[in-house]
Amino acid sequence: MRYKVKALQAGRLTEVELDAANEADLRERLSSQGLQAVSIHAERRFTLKKSDFALSLFTQELIALLEAGLTLVEAVETLRDKSGQDGSRVVLTRMIEGLYQGLPLSRVLSTMAEHFPPLYIATVGSAEKTGHLADALKRYHHYESRLAMVRKKVVSALVYPLVIITIGGSIMLFLLFYVIPKFSQIYASMKTLPFAAQVMLWWGELVHSNGVMIFAGIIGTIAAIIGLLRTQTVQTMLQELFWRIPRLEEYRRLFALTRFYRTVGLLLAGGLSVVGAMELAAQLLPQSMRLALTRAIVDIKSGQSVSATLPKYGLTTPVSERLLRVGEQSGELATMTERAAQFCDEELERAIEMFTKLFEPILMLFIGVLIGTIVFLLYMPIFELAGNMQ
C-alpha cells in the first residue's frame, strides 16, 4: 500500500511517500531511516491489471541494458523514460522509488505481486546473492519461453476441434431451420407419406409455427451453457471429470512434471537449495501431486536423496529418474532437472500429436454422420415414393 507520511528528521518536518505492506511495516521502515512519524495517510492509488504490464518485454529489455553496462537503477530509469503514460510507467516509477530508498530489487518486486509472480521474485532474490542478475533473468526468460511453447502446443491441439464443432453446429442449425422447412412443403399435398417424410413435415410445420421461439430457446440454452462453463465451480468439476480419462491423466501428469522440473532447475541454477526450490515449485503441481511432493520434501529433509525419494511418490518418469541420479552423483542437479524437463516435453509433444491424429478424424466422422443423417432424411422419402410408383 502507498502511504503519504509527514515525519520529523533532525528536528525538521519532511514529507515522504513510501510503499509498505501495512502501517506497522511502514513505521519500522521510518524508524530505520531515522524518521519519526507525525501523520500517516494511506493513498488510494491506481490499481493495474496484470495484463497492463508486459513482464516478458520488460525482462528482455532489462537484460539488454544490464549487459550493455548500465547499473540497475539506470536501466530501470531508461525503461521508464521510454515508456508512455501507461501502466508500465506507474510500475517502473514505483520500482525506482523503492531502489532509491535502498531496498533490494526482490523486496521492491514483492510489493507489486500483482505484476511479478513468486518465481520471478525468487529468481531475482537468488541473483542478488551472486550478483549475476542478467544471467538469472535470462534463465527465467528461457523458462517462460519453453512453458509458453508447451502451452501453445496444447492450445493448438484444441483449436481445430472447436472450429469443427462450431462450423458443424452452424450447418446443423441452417439445415434444421431453413432447408428442412422449405423442403418439407414438397410433401404437404401428399396423402400417403413414408415415415421419414412425416418426420420432415412435422418438423417443418413446427418451425413455421414456433420457429422463432425454438431458435431463441436453442441460442439461449447455448448461451446458458457457455455462462455456466465460465463459472469456477463448473470449470473445476469438468476439469476433474476430464482428467479422470485414463490417457488424459497421463498427459496432465507429463505437463505438470515439465513445469516442475523446469522450475526446480531454474531455482537451483540461481542458488536456492533443493528443498527451497521444490517448496516454491509445488504451487505449479495439481493437488494430488502437490501432496505427494510435500511428503517427498519431508523425506528429503530427513537426509534421503532426491533421486530415491521422488520416484517413490510418483514424481518422475523412467528417464527423469536416471537423470536425477546422474545429477546428484555429478553435482549437476540443476542441469539434469532441465534435461528431465526436455524429455518430458518431447514425450508430451508425441502424446499431443497422437491425440490430434486420433481425435480429429473421429470428430469429423461424428459431424459428418449428423449432417448425413439429415440429408438422408430429406431425400429418403423421394426415393421411397419413386419406388412405389414403379
How would you characterize this protein structure?
With about 400 residues, the protein is mainly α. The protein folds into three domains: about 1-40; about 55-115, no CATH class; about 130-390, no CATH class. It is about 75% helix and about 5% strand. It contains 15 helices and three strands. The protein has helices at about 25-30, 55-65, 70-80, 85-100, 105-110, 120-130, 135-185, 195-230, 230-245, 245-270, 275-280, 285-300, 305-310, 320-330, 335-390, and strands at about 1-10, 10-20, 35-45. Strands 2-1-3 form a three-stranded antiparallel sheet. A hairpin with a 2-residue loop joins strand 1 (about 1-10) and strand 2. The relative contact order is 0.07. Mean pLDDT is about 80; it is low at about 45-50.
